[in-house]
Amino acid sequence: MRKLAFFRLVYRASRLLRERLTATGLVLGALTGFAGAFGLDTEANLAHILFSIGTCFLVVDTLAVILLRLRAPRLAARRYLPDFVTAGEPARYRIEIWNLGPKPAGTCGLVEELGQPWPEAEALAGFRAAVATNRFDRRVGYPAFVNMLRRLRAIEVKRGNVPRLLPGQRTVVELAIAPIARGLASFQRLSLVLCGPLGLVEARVPVAVERGKLPVLPDRTPVDLPPTATHRLIQPGGIALAQHVGDSEEFRCLRDYRPGDPLRSIHWRSFARMGKPIVREFQEEFFSRMALVLDTAAPYPFAPGFERAISMAAWLIARPRDAESLLDLVFVGDRVHRLTAGRSLGSSDMLLRVLATLVPTPADSIGPLLTMFERYADQVASIVAIFLAWDDVRRKAVQRLLARGIRPMVLVIEAGPDSAVGDDAAFTGILRRIALPAAVSPSLAP
After folding, report:
1. What letters, b where the CB count within 10 A reaches 16 and e where it falls short, cover 66-94?
2. Which of these, 140, 202, 294, 361, could form a disulfide with 365 (CB 3.0-4.6 Å)?
3. What are the structural domain ranges in the chain?
4. What's domain 2-217's superfamily in CATH?
5. pLDDT, tens digit, for every residue of 346-389?
6. Which residue spans within 182-271 are E strands per DSSP?
7. What is the per-residue pLDDT across 21-51, written as a single tens digit (0 to 9) for each?
């Protein structure tokens, strides 16, 4: 906990410096600091002269930026964010800006300030063990901390430029988005960047704009599944469309009343027009339904196996399907969820948005998931289960399905090469092991 608090302090201090000084200003500030340290003895060297010159430059530019901030223009803006972006795929969005002040606004920079979630100590320890690629990172862990912060922010927004605006004038600026990882990006504040005449110091002036959120969908890892025979199963109660409520069936036709027909089936308008009882006839609904069971029992956020499982699930959800087919996504969050896409029940985008914000659950969450997995197995035509481990609990659940004549496709994500583990003979044809790379080395650039 102390190390995590120290990391947060160092990160906030470095971020504050990057927001106040330009790249040139950071270099000059570092040189000035070194010159001040070596120039304490003014008779031994001339480093104190460099310290004085550097300090004068920084002070003069700071005073100039303070004056610019006092005379900063008053602007307002409106963001036009896309519905979502996908991790690893660059995107752009528009910002409409207008000048509310009585004076012209000069050319200046434009930056987005994103919300920054902070990781827990246990999550950071697991993440560091997975991504550390050198001795410094393994012993200290600050590069892994910075990398995890970038993933928690989900995106990076590149700086833009605002042209000169006359009073009341409007303009549209495009900013580039670099999606880093799945998640929900939070746009907290939009600021103008005013730079001093020497190009050393910057100041940020807030722009009036509403906050926004942008879902970042997971990237998609193709899954090579064997062709499965699709068949249609009766759905208890039918598939309720927008006009149906409760236990409903699909309308088929109108016909004459027969003794024993329920009164609620009488079509009263046709009764009044025809002069005899007319009833509505319904038929049971049959659909091709697929279940996708996602194991979320991961040790920490952004675990390689967990992220691979979500990427594979995203590919299965996004692939084209028949308009009459249904897809159930079964996973554990605060409880066991079963979300359906297809027909009028939901879209694939809805399921992908759920995957974007999915977090790991404790190891004992696999029990309720497997219970739901077995309970609804008879209602679906095919099952694809993505597991993060292959232990006795998961193995016995699949064996019980096989005993009932149900053959799911089981994908197990494991660490190490394929040759390190052998396939179970009893699950030949339905079990596939997917090995992760031995070392994961994501970019650690801040």
Report:
1. eebeeebbebebbbebeebbbbeeebebe
2. 361
3. 2-217, 250-283, 287-436
4. Immunoglobulins (2.60.40.10)
5. 788 899 999 999 999 998 899 999 998 888 888 788 889 999 99
6. 183-195, 202-207, 212-217, 233-234, 250-256
7. 999 999 998 898 888 877 666 666 677 788 8
